[in-house]
Design goal:
five-stranded parallel sheet; six-stranded antiparallel sheet; binds flavin-adenine dinucleotide; Rossmann fold; alpha/beta; 12 helices; 41% helix; Globin-like; Elongation Factor Tu (Ef-tu), domain 3; 3 domains; globular
Amino acid sequence: MDVARLKQSWSLVAAHGDQVPLYFYSTLFLSHPETRQMFPTNMAGQRDRLVTALAHIVTNVDQVDRLVGFLKDLGADHRKFAVRPEHYPAVGEALVATLQHFLGEQWTEELAQDWTAAYGLVSQVMIEAAQAAEAVAPPWWVAEVVAHERRAFDVAVLTLRPQYLLPFAPGQSVGVSHPAVRTWRYYSPANAPRQDGTLELHVRAAPGGVVSSRLVYGTAVGDQIHLASPVGDRLTLWSAGSSDLLLLAGGTGWAPVKALVEQVAAEGAGRRVDLYVGARSRLEFYDTETIEKLAASFPWLTVTYVVGADPQRPGEFVHVADRALADGDWRSRHVYVCGSDEMVTHSVRALTQAGYHPGQLHHEGLGKHWYGPAWRTALDASAPDNSGGAR
Ligand SMILES: Cc1cc2nc3c(=O)[nH]c(=O)nc-3n(C[C@H](O)[C@H](O)[C@H](O)COP(=O)(O)OP(=O)(O)OC[C@H]3O[C@@H](n4cnc5c(N)ncnc54)[C@H](O)[C@@H]3O)c2cc1C
């Protein structure tokens, strides 16, 4: 397989932008109509996801270790879309037809062989990983909504009870899908694992958001939703040793941070934790009752609220990280940051400029990603820039 040739041909195809996924999906659905039901009714976001996924596979095609980890995660995760081994050749045919279409006269027999071989390897790794995952976890869990509280105009806190135990670590995220919309997004459990197996989710409805709007405005106690295997290791305490912690949360970024606080409490010993919780306005602190209870229960926990936009000072915005940096020197601690992409990007930049090093910074943006942390874990784990954060 000629990797350079493969990459170069992909860059020519990718230059056609949105036309590529349009052609690909039309070809796939026309030749194999049974695959249509695996995709959301509204395909807009799906198009980006396909192109981004392919771009990452092609870019990393010569870095086998990283690529195999990514593909294994992808294969195991795709079980939630009810993808079966017999679907892979259909996708391969549509992919080759798409490449051939956009490359026109530049499509050669050698390229056809390169792409067929590359796709064969990719699908083999994904199929094997999916089969291996069968022994470990179901493709998805059915969970009942046992509580649904609207805490702000656009924020709901949901408590879910999966039919079978869904193991996860604080700081991870799980795939969530409402059966009515048939598409998956990630949400972070806001609790450490509980005896009764329930999970709490904090969901902010994105304007026009397919899944979040459904979860906030169109879900009630007794409804069933689907959950998929937990992903991500960026926000877990796995690499923080027994260090004291500085936790920075913005908006529903408070969810995984709350899970971390509960984990520290469950560990029962020794860490000091300083928590900064930010919101754009006072009205947007949707979980103060819980935060106050935690602060009152645990002497090792100190809480500071940061209001971004103060009506007294129009035009100024106070960032959570800037406030924390102004309050103290936390360089001996591990720092966890979760919030919007902008909040995370700003925080990581400010902390880095203040002398904090990548190894002590753990961050996750809740941004509009085609695929969640599993992808980043596999592909970015060894990337030199651990200080980015723009999602
Ligand atoms: C690892 C991870 C963990 C996450 N955890 C949480 C969580 O605990 N709570 C939570 O509320 N969200 C969380 N998110 C975000 C969540 O996965 C969805 O992206 C978000 O709810 C929007 O999905 P949607 O289907 O409603 O919007 P879509 O239908 O995908 O998009 C609708 C519109 O909203 C915009 N949009 C999409 N996503 C976002 C976003 N995140 N922020 C702003 N605008 C957006 C799109 O550009 C589009 O214009 C997490 C994301 C990741 C990657």
